[in-house]
């Protein structure tokens, strides 16, 4: 599904946070949003997910305008929000159960291996490592029948090694699943490694400062290590905005 965001603005307490944001995401494209802290990245996801009301702007999925909550979007917030009293299988099939999908558990179990959770269906969240919990939260999001995934710093709370492992895993998964995705991250490496395109936001009120197209790049850790100049350029841009 193609996502089109036009002229998106919002203020909190009379302070303009998003200033006429325009962007599009093609079917199957993976786009990362990078920007200085507090510029409004999560706010964009919250508006798309229907949790916040925009002041101006139009959101379209495949040319159809979306208002409020929509099942086009599956949202994975920063914390994993796994329910501690439910098993991993019950946690990942929460939406399916709410929607009375009798095949929810059967369909979920087929994905446990891919998501590195094989054998853990009857475990509880506190029996899993941080990385596994994030994969479970991600599986719950991916199992939603939504066309567009909204991921807010999914690996933000993980240590650097687990984070890198999760990025490798997500890059592999991307090739298989081809879901339209918008990822919010603070991490320049993560954005470069995972995204087809990076949108860099300015300091508040946020507008899109720069777009980096990586769609023709064959991604690998070696490629990432060689991107010193590009990383420096993005870093300087974000640093300038942080000080703005
Ligand atoms: N519901 C709300 N009511 C009032 N102010 C809000 C609300 N949501 C966000 N804000 C404010 O809007 C600004 C942008 O917040 P947001 O969380 O979108 O930024 P961010 O770029 O995701 O930040 P970070 O990188 O630190 O996660 C912040 O100043 C925040 O305090």
UniProtKB/TrEMBL annotation:
Pfam families for the chain:
ABC_tran
| Keywords in alphabetical order | ATP-binding, Nucleotide-binding, Transport
ABC transporter domain spans which residues?
Answer: 3-228
GO molecular function terms noted in the UniProt entry: ATP binding; ATP hydrolysis activity
Query: Which protein is depicted?
Result: ABC transporter ATP-binding protein
